[in-house]
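Homework help thread (please don't just give me the answer)

Our assignment gives two proteins as sequence + C-alpha cell strings and asks us to describe the second one. The first is just a warm-up. Here they are:
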Amino acid sequence: MSNSINPYQVTHPSDSTSAVDLRLVFDGAIGEDDYRGLLPRNWEWWLCMVLVVLLAICLALFTSVTVVTVLFVRDPLVVMTLIGCCAAMAVAFWLAVRFVNPKVRARRVLKRNPDLLGTARGELNSSGLRFEDGVHQYWFGPAHMLGATITASGIRVGVDPNRDRYLALTDRLFEAYDPEAAHRLHHHWAVLSATPEARQRPGYRALWDQIGAAPAEAIHFRGGVAVMGEERQQRLAANVIIALLLLVPSYLNFSEPWTLWATGILVVYALAMNSKRWRSFVERQSQQVWNCDGWVTSNEVAINNGETGVRMPAKQIEVSQLDDGLMVTTKGGAAYDLARDPLLEPEQWPRLCSSVLGSSE
C-alpha cells in the first residue's frame, strides 16, 4: 500500500524551531473588563469563599434561633444579643461577598493602580515581551515571562512581586491570539532561561537591544544599583477576614474538641499572618541591589537589570544629588540609588550630573 499525504493534515514544527519566528502582536487599550477577566484566584479569595459558606450557615441558624427567641423568650437582653449577633454576621457576610465579587475586586485594585489601564502596544516573541503604554517602553525578558499565565482568553503578565499588579493582555488586543503559539513561546523562554550560559545567547536580549538602543550622546553606566521601593500598604480586609474567621467557632459548640482545636489553629494562623503584615506596614522601605546597565541623555533614561528594562522620557523622573551618587525617583514611586564609583568612569560623572539634574528641573 503506497503512502499518501493528507493535504488537510496540520503540521507542527518543533517547538524550538517554530518559537524563534513566532510573534504575537497586540495593539489597543487595557480596560477594566480586561483586568477583571484575568483576575487570579489567590489564597485570600479561597479563604473568603470558605468564610462566605460558613457565615451563610451560621447566619441561617442564628436567624432561625433569633426568630424563635423573639416569639417565645421575654428576656430583652437575650433578644438584643441575638439580634446583634445576626446583624454582625450579616455585615460580615456582605463584606465577604463583596471581596470575592470580581467587579468589586477589580475596581478596588485599579483605584490604587490606575497605571495598569490604558494604551497597550507591543509584541511577544522569543525574546520576551515588548510593551509600550504611550510614554514608557518596557522589556520583560524570557526569565520574567516564565511567570506569565496563559489562558484561552489572554495572557496575564505580572509587573512586580505584588500579584495584583499585572498586564491584562486579553485576546481582543491581539491581531490573532493563539494560545498554542503562546505556550510554544513559553517553552522557548524556559529553554533560554534554563542556565546563566543560556541567558548570554544573542537572542535573549534581542528585544531590549531594539528598545534600549542608545543615542550617540548617551552616557552609559553599568554596575550595582540599589533599588528603594516603598512597600504598599497591606490590605486591611485580609486582617478583617482572619478576625472574622476567629469568630465562627465561637458560634459553635465549644464543648466539642474539634471546635477548640479549630479556634487554636486559627488564632496561631491569625497572629502569624498579622505580625507579618503589620511588620511590612511599619517597615515601609525595602532595598534590593540590581546589577544594572543603561544610559542617560538630557531627554531620555534607559535602565535594564538583565530580566526587565524600561526606556522613558527624562521628564518622568526626579533626580536629587547625594553625597556619593544620585537618587532617581520615577513617577511610579520606584527609586534608584546610582552610586558614583562602581557605575561610571570618573570623567563621566560631571556629564551625568549636568545631564540628569538639568533634565529633571
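The one we have to describe:
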Amino acid sequence: MKKNIKSNVVTICTLLLLVSCHSNQNKGFEVENTIDLRHCDTIISMSSIAMGSIVSMQCHDSILIMRNALNDQYFSFFNTKSKKLLGHWGEIGNGPLEYIDISSEFSIIDNKLIFRDVVKKEIVKIELEDLLHFFENKEYKITDVKSPYLYSLNFRPLRTEFVTDKIICAGCFDDGSLKIIDSDNNTITLSSEYPFDSGNITNLHKGRVFQSFLKGNCQQEKIARSYIASDILEIYDISDNTNQLIYINDYKYPPILSSRSQNPKIEERISIGGIIGMDATEELLFLAWSSKSFKELSEMDYRFNEILCLNWYGEGLRKYTLPFDVSNFCVTNEYLYVINEQEESIDIYRFKINNQLTGTIL
C-alpha cells in the first residue's frame, strides 16, 4: 500500500512538474525579430448567427472566402476592397450543387475553389469566376466538376492538401504516415514513419491519434506538415517525383500519449498547444502558435495571438504578435487577415504587413 501511495505521489509530482515547465519555459521557434502588430482596419463585422463558426479561410485576388460551420451554407464570400459581403454558397444536401459534408480545409488553385465531399469521397472543383457571376445574377449557371478520390478500409485520408495535380493525404493508412495520390490515382508513400515515439498503436490508428495540419506550395511544389499538440514542422519537396523530406525542425515538444486512458489519445494537460494552423504565400510559411498546454488551448476555443513566419527552407524570420486573441487567420503578400469571434458577432480584421524575406511592418 505504501509503495502504491509513493508511486502515485511521484506520478502526480512528475505531471505537475511537466505542466509547470510547459507554462513557464520560453517555447517556440527561433526567429530574427518580433513585430507587434497594433494597427488594423475592420473588413466586416456581422452577427455570428448569420455566419456560424468559421473553420478556415483563404484570400484570393481581394476575395476573402470562409468555410462556415453551423450554417445552412458552407462558404461565405467577401470583397475586401469594398468591404461587402458578396454572398453565401454551398447548400447542404444530396441534390445538384449540394454537398452532404465537406472538408474543413479547402484550396484555391488556378482560380478554382477545391474541396472534398467527405461522405461521397469526391474532389469538387468550381471556377471562382462562376461563383462571382452567380452572386451578381442568381440565374447564372454554376458547374462543378467532381472526381472520386481513393478511400478504403486501409487508406482513409483525414486531411488533404492539393499541390499542382497531386493530392497530399494525412490520415489512417496500413503503412506510412503521409501519402500522395497522383494524377493517375496511384498512391506514393511520402513519409513512412512518425518522427516521435508513437507508442504501441497500430499504424492504421496512428493517423487519428496524431492528426496533422498540411499546407502546400504549388509554385515551389512543396508541402509543410505539422502535428497537433506539438512544435514539430516538416517540409517535403514533391517536385519531379523527388518526394523527400528536406526539413524537420529541432523540435522539443512532441505529442505525449496519455497513460491513463485505455483508448490511445494525447495527454492534453502536458502536451503543448504548439502549431495550431498554417497558411502560406509563394515565398513564406506562417504558423499559428501557442505556448500554452493543449488543455489550456482547448479551454479557450483554440484562440491564439502569435504567428510565426518562416521561409520554405524552415528558416525562422519573425514572429507577429497580435493585440487580441483570434480564432483563425490567412495571409496574402500584403495583408494578414484574422477573425475575432465573439458570442454575438464575428469581426474580421486586416493588418498590413510586408512579407518580403527581409521586410518589416509597413
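TA reply:
I won't write it for you, but here's a hint about the kind of observation we're looking for: Residues 1-28, 356-362 have pLDDT under 50 and may be disordered.
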